[in-house]
Amino acid sequence: MNLKPIKDDAGHEAALREIERLWGAAEGTPEGDRLEILTTLVEAYEETRFPMDLPDPIEAIKFRLEQQGSDHKALIGILGGRTRVYEVMRRDRPLSLAMIRRLNKQLRIPAEVLIRPVRSRKKKAA
User: Fold this and answer.
1) Rounded to an integer, what distance in angstroms lies between the CA atom of residue 123 and that of residue 9?
2) How far apart are CA 63 and CA 126, in angstroms?
3) From the centroid of its chain, how far is CA 10?
């Protein structure tokens, strides 16, 4: 097979060209195996070369609500009452472990996103 780790952008480009050539190869064939290995190598290279930060928890909640066509009212019962939802979404109150668990289970927001520190609200100048 003559595969090797991807160590630079040139190797990355070459691997992407080879993946494009092999795209659609049947599983279990030598071409399919080569495609699977190359995609794993490219993913590993891209994770280290182009890391992506996880989103802010509040922004992730807003995004999920938008995806579902819901508003903050959908969080009542998940985060607590209306006042608690308002405090959390304004960044005045942090997410508790119980809130994180309910958001993860009911809205399917990954826990690793929800446990990140929430960016604080910008204070207005006096």
Assistant:
1) 43
2) 32
3) 27
d(CA 53, CA 66): 21
More confident of the two residues 67 and 121 = 67
CATH class of 57-114: mainly alpha
Which among 73, 18, 13 is positioned nearest to 45, based on CA atoms? 13
Non-local (6+) Cβ contacts of 4 within 8 A are 11
pTM, entire model: 0.59
Domain-by-domain residue ranges, the chain? 9-49, 57-114
Considering Cα of 13, then 14, then 20, then 24, what sign does the dihedral take? negative
Question: For position 125, what pLDDT does the model report?
Answer: 52
